[in-house]
Amino acid sequence: MKTMHLFANCERQRQIRVHLENSERSILRTVKRFILPIVTLPMVQRSTTNHRPRAKAIDDRLPKLVPTFAGQTNHQGCVARNLCVISLVMLALAANASPAEGQTLTERLVTEAPVKLVQQARQDGDIVRGAILFHQGNINCAKCHRPVSESDRLAPDLSRLGQEVSDESIVESILLPSKTIRKGFETVSVLTVDGHVVNGSIVSQDDQKVVLRSSQNIEQLITFEQDDIEAIKPSAKSNMPDGLANELKDRQQFLDLLRYTLDLKQRGPTDDAANEDSLVRRELSDETKGIVLIKQLNCSGCHDWKTGESIPPLQHGPNLKWSAKWLNPDYLAAFIADPQHTKPGTSMPNMLSHLDDKQRTESATALVHFLTSLANNSLTAPHAPQSPVDLQADGEGILRGEELFHSIGCVACHSPRNDLAIEQPLEDSIPLGDLGNKYDTNALTIFLKNPHAVRPSGRMPNMQLTHLEAQDLSRYLLQASESDAKTSWQIDSALAGKGKQLFSQLRCVNCHADVIDTAPALPHPAALVDLDPNGGCLSGESGKWPQYSLDETDQQQITAAIQSLPSELSAEQEINITLATLNCFACHRRDNIGGVTTARSHHFQTTNLNLGEQGRIPPTLTGVGAKLNEKWMRDVLVNDRSIRPYMKTRMPQYGAANVNRLIELLQSHDRLSETKFAAVDDAKEMQELGLKIAGNQGLNCVACHTFRYEQSDTMPAVDLTEMAERLKKDWFYQYMLDPPRFSPNTVMPSFWPNGKAIRPDIAGDAKTQVEALWQYLLEGRQARAPRGLIAEPLKLVANDEAVMLRRSYPEIGKRGIGVGYPNQVNLAFDAEQMRLAMIWKGEFADPSGVWRGQGHGTVRPLGDNLIRFDRGPEIDDPVSPWIVDDGRPPHHRFKGYSLDKKMRPQFSYEFANVVVNDYYVDMLDSATNDPYIRRILTLKSGSGETNIVFRAATGKTIEPFGDGSFLVDDRLQIHIDEKHTGSIVDQPDTQHLRIPLKVNADEQQLILEYRW
Q1: Does residue 202 sit in the same domain as residue 113?
Q2: According to the 3-state scheme, what is the secondary structure of 956-991?
């Protein structure tokens, strides 16, 4: 009642009462006269949406509320009218108020009833766009919610949720993932004895160890010894990240994603997803692993498979003439004398183990003299390795080499290295040994450019390096060497002659061809099947036989192979042996054998995160012979053809001689089940339907796929116009009907799950639609461009009012806020790091990068004279400033913005206890009529006097030119008001313009002007 009395005594209420008694029209006029001005006061907080449509909405809704009270004149009617007016005020405020400043899409959606969101998703959600979003890299729901074995499952399989899970609970799971955590997917916090806390889900646990899947990186498994654990506590946080909806462009995208998710649940699992056994990793048999070892150790160089047979084929050793010419002779001598000690893990056996130390050294030296005499006819070895690479002298090249080594695929086989190129050992790594003692920079560069000239059997593949890349890589790898320049060798003809005899006697010619023309006949060793598994090479003892460094597992596998040698290998055995010998299983998976390991996964990178796992993990080889046409497969394996430029890991080249048989086997062995194609009565009509399906009125294939080498706005998925050339028709058919069956990591949505079209409004059943797409793709490069491929540029222009766009901007990120002003000056504010990020003149912005596709591009500033400012908050502690990175400063907080009558924003943020209001006005110079920006920062401390510093600019040169003005890099003029003083601080390679500030409880202003 007190509120009512106060309201009744108000003169404004008296005026409202008079108008209410007149007519319904006067009521509406009064509300618009008195209510709307209240909610449209200057600087009132609001969103970037123009207020005029909201005002119209009030016009539409008021007549429904007011007539009940019109014409009432008694006391009750007055009170009723007062209540009506209060309701109208609240209605107007609600209609016109913006979401809370800085409010995210998630925060807005959680205020809506889940049942309403479900209804709207079913009614207005686009299931095709939702399918694309579900698999898209920045959302990548499919990464965790994928059909994998129960033990490897990261999140529930949405197709298996069942009807007991309500649609509304799915909404809550997306928006509030930690509210209810499904059983089996709980997370824990592990506290270690040294005080570290790691969050994740337990993969396995026993008395000795706990294996945790990290919440920070679900690909990472962390092993803890039980003795190192202080406590394990249940966590209330879900592995599913908070704020996932904030990765979406708007509410419509959320409805699209929800629509597809609901459809997954409703349809249930596919037949293949139900067979979890097919998803479990498996290993090669011991017999097959033994054959691989026999091939890698080149046992066939001495022993027949069976009498008169040579399976597997001979594995040629390195070209020793090349080695003698380019490698350090000291290293060669040490390696021949004791291969395993010089390079642990080498497949080269010790041929001199039966000799004493002196004899081994003499024999190895003689062999090197012989090989060196063949490499050149001069008296001096041609190359003495250089001194270690100087890190300071070629720092940039070394850094490029480090990036190459850890991205193009080297670490698929070899251990990763730290910044000094020191190995960080991983299991199953092929060691590189002491490269600095072996190569100089020139020799290693030559080897890396063409490894097949040295190792013709393809054990080291050709990574298609340019000369600069090979040079950078060799400098990086050699920087850890501590060896000095080596002395030259004088070739001794007598020792060379002795070395030639040893080369024949030791049967070196069996592995190393083209060294000597003829070799004396030697007794032929027994066939493999007749060998004693406990004797000779396999005994581990020294003798007049090659001594290999085999562990117990190696011996068991070779023994298993020898004891079960088939008369001939099956096609599948040959394929697996070849893939294992060339180490293809380090990157590729075939029939659930091999694939990228968790420890190496993060080294497989992509240039486009929207592609998800498919954009960085090499494709499966399961059924690849049934997938690819033979010509295309040969082009990939022999001619370096590629369709995945977004994948940083390169497809190695092993040489035609080493893969020709593999191509034949894959093409003849891999088969699909019988495929029944849809009938084609009218090819032209089918092509027209396929054209529609590929466009944005159909399944929108061009939203993701490249077309005639032109990439889509969303992601550069494989080129549509190469499909028919690459793929066999029956594989295309079956893949389109069930993509996860062929590629669990694919971002390709299931448009025909369980054989039913996801878009029944498009003509034809599932097979008819797939056939139509195939008929269209048969046109290849001649195919007409689908609708939606070509987009006209967009422009945002400021006219009478400022315009704003909150999206990603170049070098700012997702929390960029762009503002275009009527006087043709523009800015972008970084709400992540609380800084003015860039200013420019002319037209405002092209938003097509965030409006089209899936909306995850960047806004492109238009106009000209763009000036960028450094990263990091402008206001900071003068003594201990934040060390700038790409994240959010821990002591800064963005609080939103408000708008004045011309829609110009004032940004609000805090640093520690200092509140900052940051307001920009577009001005015109009175003399030249040139536009410039005036910036008014209002600062106030919430607790006593606080010293802060404001970074006004950075540049290579900053020069004062009087009256508080400074010139930055001869481009930007900054003027500081007379109440404050700027100082120039020198930093390495740059200068900073800083303004010290003392802020207290009284507001103060810092005014800057930017002219450029």
Answers
A1: yes
A2: CCEEECCCCEEEECCCEEEEECCCCCCEEEEECCEE
